[in-house]
Amino acid sequence: MGYPRRVLIDGGTVRIFTTDRSDGDFQIRDPAPDVEARRRAIVDAPWTWIHQVHGTAVLEVSEPGEHAGATADGLLTVAAGCPIAVTTADCTPVVLVAQRGVAVVHAGWRGLVDGIIESVGERLIERAGRPVEALVGPCIHPNRYEFGTDDLAEVIERYGEEVKGLTAWGTSALDMPTAVGRACQAAGWKVTDIGPCTSGDQYFSHRIRGDDERQTTVAWIEPAA
C-alpha cells in the first residue's frame, strides 16, 4: 500500500497519497478504465491528470477533473475536493502546501533546470498565501543515477555543487533530492519529507528495471468538518 500523508491548512486538511507497485499501474493510457478505477479507490472524485513533457506549464484547477489530459508539469488548487496528480517512475513528484492551497509538480532534471518548481511555487503563493511545507516523493537517488557531466554542469550552474553525487560504482551522478530541495528553498518552501529511491522493489523504475508502469502522487483539500 502506498504512502498517505496529511498537512493541516487554513480551513481544512491537505491529503496526499503516493502509490507504489501494490496499488497498480497509473500510466496514462487510452482507453484506461482500469486506471480510473484505481484512482477512484484512492479518492472518489474526478481527478486532474496531465500529459507531462518536462516543461514549466502550470494549470490551476477549480473543479474536480478540470484540465484532465492537458499538457503541463504542474497543477495547483485552492478548491476543496479537486484531486490533482502527477505520475512518475524515476522523476521527482513534489507537493507544495500553502496556507490555503496545494500544488503537485512533476520534476525531471530538465524541467527542474528550467524552473518548474519556482514557477509553480510563485503561482501558489499568489493564490494561496504563505508557504507551509514541501514534500518530495520517491525518485531516483544519486547512488543509482549516473549522469553526464555536460548536463550535470547545467544543474550545478543553477543549484550549486551540492547537487553533484556519485553512483554506487563511483561515476558522476545527479542528486535529484538535493537539487529539488534547493529549488524548493529558492521558491520559498522548506522540504519536510523526502521519499525513498525508486530503485528499490517497492516502486516502478524505468531507469533501473525498464518498467513501463508508473506510480502516482495525488493531493486534494478536505474542508474542515
Keywords:
single chain, alpha+beta, 225 residues, 31% strand, 25% helix, 4-stranded antiparallel beta sheet, 6 helices, globular, 6-stranded mixed beta sheet, CNF1/YfiH-like putative cysteine hydrolases
Percent in helix: 10-25%
Number of helices: 6
- For the record, what CATH class applies? Alpha Beta
Distance between the termini: 27 Å
Tally of strands: 14
Principal-axis shape equals globular
Q: Enumerate the spans where pLDDT stays under 50 for 5 or more consecutive residues.
A: none
As laid out across the biggest beta sheet, the strand order is: 4-6-9-8-10-13
The tally of structural domains comes to 1
From the helix content, strand content and strand pairing, which structural class follows? alpha+beta
**Which fold name is given in CATH as the topology?**
CNF1/YfiH-like putative cysteine hydrolases
Report the major sheet.
6 strands, mixed
CATH architecture: 4-Layer Sandwich
Determine the strand fraction and express it as a percent band: 25-35%
Radius of gyration of CA atoms, rounded to a whole number: 16 Å
Mean of the pLDDT scores? 95
The topology string of helices and strands comes to EEHEEEEEEEHHEHEEHEHE
So, the CATH homologous superfamily? Answer: CNF1/YfiH-like putative cysteine hydrolases
Summary, kept brief:
This protein is α+β, with helices and mostly antiparallel strands. Helix content is 25%, strand content 31%. Helix 3 packs parallel to helix 5.
